[in-house]
Design goal:
Elements lengths: L4 H10 L10 E7 L2 H10 L7 E7 L17 E7 L9 H17 L5 E3 L3 E4 L2 E13 L2 E11 L12 H6 L9 H22 L1 H11 L6 E4 L2 E8 L5 E5 L1 E2 L4 E2 L2 E4 L16
Parallel strand pairs: 1-2
Antiparallel strand pairs: 2-3, 3-7, 4-5, 5-6, 6-7, 8-9, 9-10, 10-13, 11-12
Helix pairs in contact: 1-5, 3-5, 3-6, 5-6
This protein binds biotin.
Protein name: Biotin--[acetyl-CoA-carboxylase] ligase
GO molecular function: biotin--[biotin carboxyl-carrier protein] ligase activity
InterPro entries: aa-tRNA-synth_II/BPL/LPL (IPR045864), Biotin_CoA_COase_ligase (IPR004408), BPL_LPL_catalytic (IPR004143)
């Protein structure tokens, strides 16, 4: 069940065409990690906008050093881009990609939401995730690799969902194959990065927040109860804490970095 270039071309012909992606497509049966393979190819002189796709990964990388289990049937894709961004804004690439992919899937009738900061969720379960890696020089990003894993037909844990199975229960199936999903995801990344670069981070953030499932969630931080009210342009979670003294309720604002707390998948199961 390898990636079928012919089907990808058919999907390209029937849908939107890319404006600048993909320049060069590298397709593999099995690699340790498509992100790592793309970095290796870049080192060997590959085009900076190259794309790597693999049928499976043997050492897929997740956020915060986690493993991304990557059996055949899933989508494993890495896209190279050269954004004009400072290193301190690198998280914007993840926000942009998450929004772009979710929005593109929604156009196909797949009601995907975003779980802060980088999860794509469908019916309260994890459909996919994004791992952005960057190379920085003098405080500027000189190369970024955006890695995306989406559950298409691969087995998933209890908190996960795969798109092929979900679509089987739907009246219409807008995404008919892995290659069409790949096309949708690449278009999504491109539209997200376009939005960030052309319209700016404020526009991007307001679109990202429209699809964020966590607004209004209650979270405990250092034993204090708070409510999720937004996400900053650096990707931090904005939480209003409720504190009481003898006379009044105060609501100090705090900003939580990605990776420091984990939000649950349903509204009622927010974790510490
Ligand atoms: C997450 O932890 O949610 C992010 C997972 C990102 C996985 C993708 S699969 C393709 C690319 N190559 C990798 O090694 N990781 C990313």
């Amino acid at each position: 069940m390898g990636f079928d270039l012919q089907l990808w071309e058919t999907a390209l012909e029937s849908g939107n065409r890319y404006t600048y992606l993909p320049k060069y497509l590298h397709i593999f049966e099995s690699v340790p990690s498509t992100n790592q393979t793309l970095w290796d190819l870049l080192k060997q002189g590959a085009d900076k906008n190259s794309i790597v796709i693999a049928t499976q990964q043997t050492a897929g990388r997740g956020q915060w050093g986690r493993q991304w289990i990557s059996p055949t049937g899933g989508l494993y894709l890495s896209v190279g881009i050269v954004p004009k961004l400072e290193a301190t804004d690198s998280y914007q690439l993840t926000l942009a990609s998450a929004w772009g992919i979710a929005a593109q899937l929604r156009q196909c009738g797949v009601s995907v939401g975003i779980k802060w900061p980088n999860d794509l969720v469908l019916y309260g379960r994890k459909l996919g995730g994004i791992l952005t890696e960057t190379k920085v020089h003098n405080g500027q990003i000189i190369q970024a690799v955006i890695g995306v894993g989406i559950n298409w037909a691969n087995p998933v844990p209890d908190t996960g969902i795969n798109l092929e199975t979900w679509q089987a229960s739907q009246p219409t199936k807008a995404i008919s194959c892995l290659e069409m999903l790949t096309n949708t995801v690449v278009l999504g990344i491109e539209s997200g990065i376009d939005c960030l670069c052309q319209e700016g981070v404020s526009v991007l953030l307001s679109r990202y927040l429209d699809l964020l499932i966590n607004i209004g969630d209650q979270v405990y931080i250092n034993n204090l109860l708070g409510t999720v009210v937004g996400v900053t342009s650096q990707g931090n979670l904005h939480v209003s804490l409720e504190t009481y003294d003898s006379t009044e309720i105060k609501t100090p604002e705090i900003y939580v970095e990605p990776g420091t707390i984990s939000l649950g998948y349903s509204k009622s199961s927010v974790l510490l």
